[in-house]
Amino acid sequence: MQELRFNPMTGEWVMISSSRKDRPIHSEYEGCPLCPGNIELEQNYDLAVFENRFPALVKNPSPPLNSGSPLLKNKPSKGVCEVIMYTSVHKSSLAEMSLLQIENLIEVWEDRIIELYGNPMIKYIFIFENKGEEVGATLSHPHGQLYAFPFLPLRVDKKLKNMKDYNSKNHKCMLCDILKEETRLEKRLIFQNDSFLALVPYYARFPYEIHILPKRHIGSIVDLHDSEKKSFAEALKIVTRKYDKLFERSCPYMMALFITPSEKDKYNYFHFHVEFCPPLREKDKIKWMASVETMTWQFINPSSPEEIAEQLRSIN
């Protein structure tokens, strides 16, 4: 079964995709389906992109069955799900890849955004990485994913509305102002270069949450200059290396890139940003998402963002 079902209480579309239970689970090098010459990629590669074999969204979905009720709405699960391979090297990660390889990855992200936003069906592109078994990653080979939605995901829509309200009231960008304040206060900054800044946000939900933001007001990766792509690659590498050094292991995390929706000109108040959310609260302790976080979307952070920032800042 594969379809979208609407929750009238929350205004969200839920992706029903029963085939995803058949996804392969593999963490060792031998037989990894993402290594060159195996199931997914028969030839050698540097970076690669292919359609997910277990997608939640597909280009040509079958019509869903009638729910039998006008209140219970559904529609075809139309969209695109892609897997983005970072490197052919199995035992690697953003923290271990060269800056040039990360720059190449940024170019791949840009290419996919440009191509997929050319499809009028696509309303929002969400690029992300689930790294580690702790966040549900079924394969350990370095890779990320892309979901091209036919609608705006609920949290993205919420961000857009709040940024628009702030812009309408203050005639300024919300994140540009946050950047100025955080730079002035300094205590939550962990890294910055010419074009990007990384910080533990004042409102962090996870103990070791980090946001990466461009200093220039841009809405998407496609707006980056070549020099800014180099700075972005450096920021991604430094943040992930800090995690690995802090926890003395390959740190699990969720990484999400937030860009403008497809009709970009309508959202000039939006500011591109990246969120890293590791599930750890200590080296071997998980920050579980239980009833309060999952059911109400009301997070409880058991750590002080200022103390975490100081801890991360001290790691070279």
What secondary-structure arrangement, pairings included, does this model have?
Layout: E1 2-7, E2 12-17, E3 48-51, E4 74-75, E5 80-85, H1 99-116, E6 124-131, E7 143-149, H2 154-170, H3 174-185, E8 189-192, E9 196-199, E10 210-214, H4 226-247, E11 253-258, E12 273-277, E13 280-282, E14 285-286, H5 291-296, H6 305-313
Antiparallel strand pairs: 1-2, 1-4, 3-5, 5-7, 6-7, 6-11, 8-9, 9-10, 10-12, 11-12, 13-14
Helix pairs in contact: 1-4
Offer a quick outline of the entry:
The protein has helices at residues 99-116, 154-170, 174-185, 226-247, 291-296, 305-313, and strands at residues 2-7, 12-17, 48-51, 74-75, 80-85, 124-131, 143-149, 189-192, 196-199, 210-214, 253-258, 273-277, 280-282, 285-286.
